[in-house]
Amino acid sequence: MAYTDSLFQLGMDLTRSSTAQKEDHGQTALGAHDDRKDYFVERDGVRFAGTHLLIDLFGAKRLDDLKHIKETLTRCVEVAGATLIHVHLHHFTPNGGVSGVAVLSESHISIHSWPEAGYAALDVFMCGGAKPHATVDVLKAAFEPDKLMVKEHLRAHAVDERNWIKVPAKAPTQAGKKTPVREAKARKAA
């Protein structure tokens, strides 16, 4: 019973069917049409993994409308020239907030909304030839915020990807297991 109560408090009512859509397993998305395999972006002489926009909407509307949010995320994908793989949204009860993601070949768009506060946090990350900045006007029109803030982060722009190496896997320690990650070699100061 405590498990069910805890899930209900998180907005997951097990007595009702989920608002989550059925996942599309096995779907393969098409990649870029050139010979590059890394899909890094080059802009104004800078090479980076992708553009990551953090978007905050204040005084926004329709933040509890699943259909509207799905249509808006889909429109964002279209105007950015990205490739949609799947949209997954979850409607929380009782406040009506929505969390979800549009999974793209070029990365993702995510949303977390607090309709009771008129606030939504969106995350738009795209690599390759996609245009993540084009999503901002779509979001403005769809949610009519009183205020919108955008912060841009160029992922891996300070790392020369040719220097990335795979860290060899080490034997797990008693305290826990470590997962191999990519690391950059230290650069020498000029």
Global outline:
globular
Rg: 20 Å
Please give the CATH class of one domain.
Alpha Beta
CATH superfamily of one domain: S-adenosylmethionine decarboxylase
Which fold name is given in CATH as the topology of one domain?
S-adenosylmethionine decarboxylase
| Mean pLDDT score | 77
- List unreliable stretches of 5+ residues: 6-21, 23-34, 179-190
User: What portion of the residues fall into strands of 2 or more residues?
Assistant: 25-35%
Number of helices: 3
Enumerate the strands of the largest sheet in spatial order, edge to edge or round the barrel: 4-5-6-7-3-8
Q: How far is it from the N-terminal to the C-terminal residue, by CA?
A: 63 Å
Q: What's the helix-strand series? A: HEEEHEEEEHEEE
Summarize the structure.
With 190 residues, this protein is of the alpha+beta class. It has three helices and ten strands, in the order H-E-E-E-H-E-E-E-E-H-E-E-E. A hairpin with a 2-residue loop joins strand 1 and strand 2.
